[in-house]
Structure to design on (528 residues):
């Protein structure tokens, strides 16, 4: 249940976050904005009398017309960081983007706390997520990397447990990236900064926090993309059913008869 | 499977994907505009304000910086050169005849010149200005403590907010006066030690682009609360009768009244 609230909250947080980013599509390091020296910027510029989208990363310009800086339906293009299909609302509206963002930020934080407390009480973290000793052996980790790259997935009983790469990815998201999102988000609040000025030191200033917020969000998007590819590649229907009902059918090693349904522990 | 059906299927998937995205976006836009769902989204503001008021000490200070941290390129946003005739006349005379009016729910309405304000207890602070758009600049501000002005006027018991009426019209397309800039803060922020009516920026008289002759600094909130070109302070019990009733120019256009995040 908490997983699906997460899907909803993170989708809206991402898209409203891009709306907010579009209000000033440039990122800096430190406490303040050195307007001439963003490390990342998405601008609309004129080239040979025609507007183009230019994304500048660490001083290197890239043409990104149609995606970043300049995008829109034919005849109605406009200067905007991320395109309309990636933002909530689709049209440019910082005030409403903030309304969506903070509403789902609260939902996300409350849902996350419920997940953490339940995970500690019912042993989900200890049982399912903390790597076992044998899983950490380099040979095993390498084996998992190779078989994942070949999209070969475990069969039989092994398929019910998280493998080491899954565990590493899930732990990194749950205990590093998501807390980073909340921490850097709060650091951007001038009100919260007065209560917890150490956050400014931790992240290197408000503009650094804004940059880390953006980078962490990008990494979460990357995680979600890989996560979805893996869900599809390892058996879409079986996985989704297990996520909703908790039942997970396993295929036994030499082609056995029909897959059998068995109660699994997927959350 | 032959190549034709493959291409066909890919085209179909692409179209289906695009339609799904279009539907989702249309639904989000609809939810943004629907008053009921918009009201649900807005409920988060009350939660944020209460949480910050609960966890943040009333007197907790915003971080202060050193002269080395000052922004060489402090951006001036909103109005940068008001065209109101009275304001233009004051600016032409170096604000010599300009007066700050303090009225509303006060025991002693005031009429203060810049010199009067400079004689009040003052504070100088180097702080970070956070625009709602996302950027930050660091500036040095000197001004009269708002608490000192309010103490001199004497707030009546039913005063709950301080409204700042400004000289600039930021939305000239409106003809009913709702384009006039104004802001409001509660008494917690009004009496905060860093809340000042600034008449100097970076050791110079406040420039017109940054709100001459007087602007508010309320350091624990976003830039749009830092009202420029302040002409009048009004103590009120509520602000429903002002502008479009939300307590400020940007608040009337959908932004949060509590801009602590």
């Amino acid at each position: 249940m908490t997983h699906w609230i997460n899907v909803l909250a993170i989708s809206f947080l991402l898209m409203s976050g891009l709306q907010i980013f579009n209000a000033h599509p440039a990122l800096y390091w430190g406490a303040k904005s050195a307007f001439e020296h963003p490390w990342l910027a998405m601008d609309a510029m004129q080239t040979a009398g025609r507007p183009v989208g230019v994304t500048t990363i660490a001083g290197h310009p890239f043409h990104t017309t149609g995606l970043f800086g300049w995008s829109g339906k034919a005849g109605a293009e406009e200067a905007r960081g991320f395109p309309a299909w990636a933002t909530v609302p689709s049209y440019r509206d910082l005030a409403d983007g903030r309304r969506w963002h903070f509403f789902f930020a609260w939902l996300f934080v409350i849902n996350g706390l419920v997940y953490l407390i339940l995970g500690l009480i019912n042993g989900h973290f200890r049982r399912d997520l903390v790597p076992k000793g044998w899983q950490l052996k380099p040979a095993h980790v390498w084996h998992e990397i190779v078989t994942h790259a070949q999209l070969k997935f475990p069969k039989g009983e092994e398929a019910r447990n998280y493998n080491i790469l899954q565990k590493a990815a899930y732990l990194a998201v749950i205990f590093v990236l998501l807390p980073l999102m909340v921490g850097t988000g709060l650091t951007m609040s001038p009100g919260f900064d007065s209560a917890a000025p150490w956050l400014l030191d931790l992240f290197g200033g408000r503009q650094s926090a804004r940059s880390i917020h953006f980078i962490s969000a990008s990494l979460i998007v990357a995680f979600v993309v890989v996560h979805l590819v893996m869900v599809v590649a390892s058996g879409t229907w079986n996985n989704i059913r297990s996520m909703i009902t908790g039942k997970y059918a396993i295929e036994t090693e030499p082609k056995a008869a029909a897959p059998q349904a068995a109660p699994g522990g997927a959350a | 499977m032959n190549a034709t059906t493959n291409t066909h299927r890919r085209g179909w998937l692409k179209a289906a994907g695009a339609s799904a995205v279009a539907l989702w976006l249309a639904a989000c836009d609809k939810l943004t505009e629907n008053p009921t769902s918009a009201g649900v989204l807005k409920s988060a503001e009350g939660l944020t304000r209460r949480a910050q008021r609960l966890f943040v000490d009333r007197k907790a200070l915003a971080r202060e910086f050193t002269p080395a941290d000052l922004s060489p390129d402090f951006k001036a946003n909103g109005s940068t050169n008001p065209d109101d005739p009275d304001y233009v006349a004051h600016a032409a005379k170096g604000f010599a005849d300009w007066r700050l009016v303090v009225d509303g729910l006060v025991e002693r309405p005031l009429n203060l010149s810049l010199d009067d304000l400079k004689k009040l207890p003052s504070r100088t602070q180097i702080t970070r200005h956070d625009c709602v758009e996302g950027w930050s600049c660091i500036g040095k501000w000197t001004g009269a403590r708002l608490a000192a002005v309010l103490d001199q006027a004497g707030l009546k018991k039913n005063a709950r907010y301080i409204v700042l009426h400004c000289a600039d019209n930021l939305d000239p397309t409106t003809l009913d006066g709702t384009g006039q800039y104004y802001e409001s803060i509660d008494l917690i922020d009004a009496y905060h030690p860093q809340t000042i009516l600034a008449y100097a920026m970076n050791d110079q008289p406040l420039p017109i682009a940054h709100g001459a002759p007087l602007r508010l600094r309320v350091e624990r909130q976003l830039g749009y609360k830092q009202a420029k070109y302040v002409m009048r302070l009004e103590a009120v019990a509520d602000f429903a009768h002002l502008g479009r009733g939300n307590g400020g120019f940007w608040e009337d256009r959908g932004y949060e009244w509590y801009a602590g995040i």
User: Anything to note?
Assistant: Chain B has two domains: 3-33, 61-253. Chain B has six helices and ten strands. The helical segments of chain B are 3-33, 35-55, 85-92, 114-119, 146-153, 187-190.
